[in-house]
Amino acid sequence: QVQLVESGGGLVQPGGSLRLSCAASGFTFSRYAMSWYRQAPGKERDLVAIINNTGGTTTTYGDSAKGRFTISKDNAKNTVYLQMNSLKPEDTAVYYCSVFVRYRYWGQGTQVTVSS
Q1: pLDDT of 39-65, one tens digit each?
Q2: Long-range contacts of 70-78 (CB under 8 A, 24+ apart)
Q3: With the CA atoms of 23, 28, 32 and 33 taken in that order, what torsion angle do they form, in degrees rounded to the nearest 10?
């Protein structure tokens, strides 16, 4: 079965950096686009970034992530990453890894808190 396990969240000061990881299993990782979403308290879940490297690598970012976040995918490790730089308090949210394999699957999420 599809499993997604996020890690790397935590508390960071404004302007700091974090790298999130998502270890995937249960499907042929190299064949599927992977994405990161986030959900802040009382808000909807929003797209952060998507990466697809089936035949060339393409990335798409949500407006909040452009210029600050970088998504990457290591097919040898079945892992997708989200490098987050210049973090702001409004980046505080639970971050979820996701893949669509007949259905949309989600990880359990990892909390990112940006605060001084």
Answers
A1: 999 999 999 999 998 778 899 999 999
A2: 71/34, 71/36, 73/34, 75/29, 75/30, 77/23, 78/23, 78/24, 78/25, 78/29
A3: 10
